[in-house]
Amino acid sequence: MAKCAICEKAISHGNKLSITRSHVSNRASRTWKPNLRTVKTIVDGQPKKIKVCAKCLRSGKVKRA
Predict the structure, then answer these.
(1) Number of domains in the chain
(2) For residues 49, 53, 56 and 59, what is the CA-based torsion angle, rounded to 10 degrees?
(3) In the 3-class helix/strand/coil scheme, how is the chain assigned residue by residue?
(4) What pLDDT, on a 0 to 100 scale, did the predictor assign at position 5?
(5) Is residue 52 a part of any domain in this protein?
(6) What rounded mean pLDDT belongs to the chain?
(7) Any bridge partners for residue 51, and if so which?
(8) Distance between CA 27 and CA 14 in Å, rounded?
(9) Residue 22 above 70 pLDDT?
(10) CA–CA distance from 6 to each of 16, 18, 45, 48, 60 (Å)?
(11) Is residue 6 one of the residues assigned to a domain?
């Protein structure tokens, strides 16, 4: 499953709405996926590849190897 190893951001589900956003418009289900990157990091003193979302990378929550 697509999930960030740091913040545990995962796939979220919801509905697609039409452009007019009318209350009678048909809705279709859709998913939003996190922007994951595979990054080589230091975990417990050893380099390891983990999946991290782009927000955690930008904010500096991950120390790259």
Answers:
(1) 1
(2) 120
(3) CCECCCCCCECEEEEECCCCCCCCCCCEEEEECCCEEEEEEEECCEEEEEEEEHHHHHHCCCCEC
(4) 95
(5) yes
(6) 90
(7) 38
(8) 10
(9) no
(10) 29, 34, 17, 14, 11
(11) no
User: What's the one-letter identity of residue 1?
Assistant: M
**Residue 13 region by backbone torsions, left for phi larger than 0, else alpha for psi between -120 and 50, else beta:** beta
Flag whether 5 is in a domain.
no
CA distance 26 to 15: 10
- Residue 36 has a CB neighbour count (10 Å cut-off) of 19
Task: Quick: pLDDT tens for 8-21.
Answer: 999 999 988 777 76
Place of tokens 């939003």: 32
* Domain that residue 19 falls in: 12-59
